[in-house]
Design a protein that fits this description.
Strand content: 5-15%
Number of helices: 12
Oligomer: single chain
Order of helices and strands: HHHHHEHEHHEHEHHEH
Largest sheet: 5 strands, parallel
Structural class: alpha/beta
Number of strands: 5
Length: 252
């Protein structure tokens, strides 16, 4: 077996697939004196570094549990003029992570709160920041199950480790006092340590009703609103806008 074939076998063993895919081209460039061997090896190893980074990004996005992969480019800002597009796009620089700032979207169902929260989460995940998306009702259910199994502290630590935790649809369903207390414990653990993104269809003044306890509701809001960006979205349902446009066209 030639050393060339042995080299290919070694690249397979080391799982250097992009190195192997480009090796023939670079051997030709070296033989033709178009590249020296150091430059060739540097570029070939860069192919592998890029592959490793892409795999890591894919893993961060996959494990984030997003309901869908939506970005800012997919959002029709013209349909929701109450949103300051430039301010939202600033989140791409991820400065909010360094400052442990929270982001809260308030608005009626269908205005795009979850889409925008996901878009911010996608930016974080694509920059290899550990991110997780969870529906509020599912979060409470998981915490309650952990409590019954005497594992609540472990579960709270798990949710606390995420650099970005997106809690979707807070207030969509009522939360009992035990659930509210466990949610407070989580928010308190993350306070001034990590970023929490919230979407809610309830104005803050009604959170006492949502949680069935105004004291706990105020304690949660106190920690969420400190160092936070709050966006109130007023407008029609973003989710049904295409259907409404079709209906309008048919009426013309």
């Amino acid at each position: 077996m030639s050393n060339y074939n042995k080299l290919l076998n070694n690249l397979d063993t080391l799982k250097l697939s992009r190195f192997k895919a480009n090796i023939d081209e670079y051997i030709d460039m070296i033989n033709n004196k178009e590249k020296d061997i150091v430059d060739a090896l540097y570029e070939l190893t860069n192919f592998e570094i890029d592959r490793i980074n892409e795999m890591a990004i894919f893993g961060c996005v996959r494990t984030a549990n997003f309901p869908y992969e939506k970005t800012f480019d997919d959002y029709d800002f013209s349909f929701q003029p109450s949103i300051n597009k430039e301010v939202l796009l600033e989140f791409k620089n991820l400065r909010f992570l360094e400052n442990h700032e929270n982001i809260i979207f308030v608005g009626s169902p269908g205005v795009g709160k979850t889409h925008l929260a996901t878009a911010i989460g996608m930016e974080a995940a694509r920059n290899r920041q550990i991110t997780y998306f969870v529906n509020c009702n599912d979060l409470i259910t998981n915490l309650r199950k952990a409590y019954l199994e005497n594992r609540l502290d472990d579960r709270l630590r798990l949710y606390s480790k995420y650099k970005v935790l997106i809690i979707d649809e807070v207030g969509f369903l009522p939360i009992d006092k035990q659930g509210a207390n466990m949610l407070f414990q989580l928010i308190n653990k993350r306070y001034e340590k990590s970023t929490t993104i919230i979407t809610t269809n309830q104005p803050f003044g009604k959170w006492g009703e949502v949680f069935g306890d105004s004291v706990i509701a105020n304690a949660i809001l106190d920690r969420l609103l400190h160092h936070s960006h709050v966006f109130t979205i007023n407008g029609k349902s973003y989710r049904t806008k295409d259907i409404l446009e079709i209906e309008n066209q048919e009426l013309e």
